[in-house]
Amino acid sequence: MTELLLLALGASLVNNFVLSNFLGLCPFIGVSRRFEAAAGMALATLFVLTIASGLSFALWQWVLVPLHLEYLRTLVFILLIAGVVQFTEIMVRATSPLLHQLLGIFLPLITTNCAVLGVALLNVDRQHGLLESLVFGASAGAGFGLALLLFTALRERLDTADVPEAFRGAPVALVTAGLMALAFMGFAGLGAR
Amino acid sequence: MNPAALIVALLVAVALAVALGVALGWAASRIEPDSDSLVERIDALLPQTQCGQCLYPGCRPYAAAIASGEADIDRCPPGGDATVRALAALLDRAPRPVDPAFGAPKPAQVAWIDEEKCIGCARCLPACPVDAIIGASRHMHTVIAAQCTGCELCLPPCPVDCIELRPATATSLRYRQSRAA
Amino acid sequence: MAVRSTFPAGLALDAHKQQACGAPIIELPQPPRVALALDQGSGYSAEPVVAVGATVAIGTLVARANHPYASALHSPLAGTVAAIETRDAATEGGRSVCIVIESDGSGRIDHRVRQAEGAASLSPDELIQWLRDAGIAGLGGAGFPTATKLAAGRARGTQTLVLNGAECEPWICSDDALMRSAADEVVLGAILLRRAAGAERCVIAIEDDKPAAIAAVTHAIERQRNAAQGDHDQRDDELTLAVVPAVYPQGAERQLITTVAGIEIRSGSLPADAGVICQNVATAAAVARWATRGEPILSRVVTVTGSGVEHPCNVRAPIGTPLSALIAAAGGYRGTPLRLIAGGSMTGRALPSDEVGVTKAMNCVLVATREDIGSRLGAVEMPCIRCGDCANVCPVGLLPQQLHRAAVADAHDSLRELGVRDCIDCGLCDYVCPSQIPLADRFRDARRRLNEADAMAARAADARQRHETRTHRLLEAAAAEQQAFESVRNRVRQSGDDPAGGTG
Question: In the CATH hierarchy, which fold is given to the domain comprising C124-293?
Answer without folding.
Answer: Rossmann fold (3.40.50)
